[in-house]
User: Fold this.
Amino acid sequence: MALYYFSASFIKLVLMYLKHFSFIFDSLLSVFIHLDIIILYVGLDCDHSSH
Assistant:
């Protein structure tokens, strides 16, 4: 019984960590995407200004 309770709480903890990690991963991914768009936009802007 104690082992079952321990494993249940452990799984809950792991799920909590996964949720937290996925949130961090999502925010990092969005930051990278925004950086990519900004770099692309600035690069195009530089190309236009050089002509």
